Amino acid sequence: MASTKFTFTLLRTSARGFGAVAASRVTVDPSDGVKVTGDYAMWHAHYETLILELAAALDDGNKEQFADKVEWTRDALNARGLASDVLKTALEELCVVLKDSLPSQAWTPLVPFFDAASKRLDQQPASSEDDLDGTGDLDVLARDFLSTLEGGHSAKAVALVVDAIRKDKISISDALVGVLPRALEYIGRQWHLGAATVAEEHFATQTAGRLLEQIMLMAPEPVANGHTAVMAMVEGDNHDIGVRIVAAFFELDGWKTICLGANAPANDLANITQHFEADLVLIGATLNTQREAVRRCIKTVREVCPNQAIIVGGAAFTNLEGCAEDLGANAQALNPEHALRLGREIVAG
What we know:
The chain is α/β, with parallel strands linked by helices.
């Protein structure tokens, strides 16, 4: 365990430096023997992220988590015209750099992680599954929402969902859980597979924000329950739709809801929590590499509000059991509805 923590610390603090060494190895003149497509800046950024992902997987003791990230990267690169053997070569070079740079006791815990990643790269990519292929009302509506967006019609896409709510075809909860996030997850997968551009993903996200505002305007006035919840995405995380959906569920349940959105500085979150005497704080993160920032954020909040109840959630915590206790939080939410149930239980004592 001690050597694992030592390795984790070295990877976290030296990711940029190790990434620079690895990037220089793979982007030298091919006549010198190395050998990948892409410039130094691209590979430096890629390696730095990959090293931080390796550190997060090591901290969780989950080698398949690192293999998942490597596989995800392979599929994204393949979709953009880079062959799988390019990433395999790049991974091998990183392995050499870390083996040569780290003390032996720090390198040893990493061996099974690189083995798992290498084996994954040797496997054929899995076929992509589209979870919007169903025939249910929410599947059809989510597809119609996306196809309208593809035509460049943001207002019409919003109107489709708003009209379905007004005609009682779906509930507000259905829209918040069964349409909005599923549509965005789909467009995210399309970007990953090279079938959607960054601009298209941003357009979908902006439209989702407009839709969320319209949905909340349609909601009946909730009965205040006397509780206050403060929520935000951790500093460095620029995704905000998820936490805004969580905020919507709390607001509809009668909570005074203070949503700071994306990229909230820890000190500001702590001060807002204290100012509003919040009963509950919810901190979200999207990437595995952001969990350390969540840990630091929780520490900052607790320095100002020592007994503060805190829930963590978001994609960074998917398939992780017991992470809340490790980070210093009270609980981990699996989705917006679960976050609300946990919040109710916490304030009920």
